[in-house]
Amino acid sequence: FHTGGGLHVIKKAFERMCRADDPSSSYDQKQQLVQSRLIPSCHLLKIIGPCHTVSSFLNTASVIMGEWERALGRVLVVFTYGSGCAASMYQLRFDDLAWMQPLSSWKVEFYRNAIHMHPSTMIHEVYIATWMKFDYKPCGRELCQVDPWKYE
User: Fold this and answer.
1) pLDDT tens string 83-125
2) Positive/negative CA dihedral, 64, 69, 72, 74
3) 59 and 80 in contact (C-beta within 8 Å)?
4) Taking the complete model, does pTM exceed 0.70, yes or no?
5) Buried b or exposed e, range 17-51, using 16+ CB within 10 angstroms
């Protein structure tokens, strides 16, 4: 799998790698590679969003949680890159089942205490306002009138 920013960034990089690896492959062959090789490593990325530093660990966990016994005896190639200054590539082999929850169980637990917000609340605008502002004071709950002690 390929790690880094958001799903669109890693999908684009993966598709470029496939194109460089086999320029004569058809569109359908490339999409089959995306579905079988890239998407299983992106379950958590699609939920959490860009995770940069820890992305290789999260994507490894995503493969383990989603593939289980299909991963046994198989080799996973991990490629990570930084902001243009460093990259690493390594491989690992699955010799045993991991000690963790399957993806479906993890998702239930992850969202168990989530606060349901209707999209009309525009609470995401608060996140957008924080981009590259290191002196930002959180105010989303106050602006959207969400009780600061509410967890569910």
Assistant:
1) 555 667 788 898 988 788 888 888 888 888 777 777 787 777 7
2) negative
3) no
4) no
5) ebeeeeeeeeeeebeebeeebbbbbbbbbeeeeeb
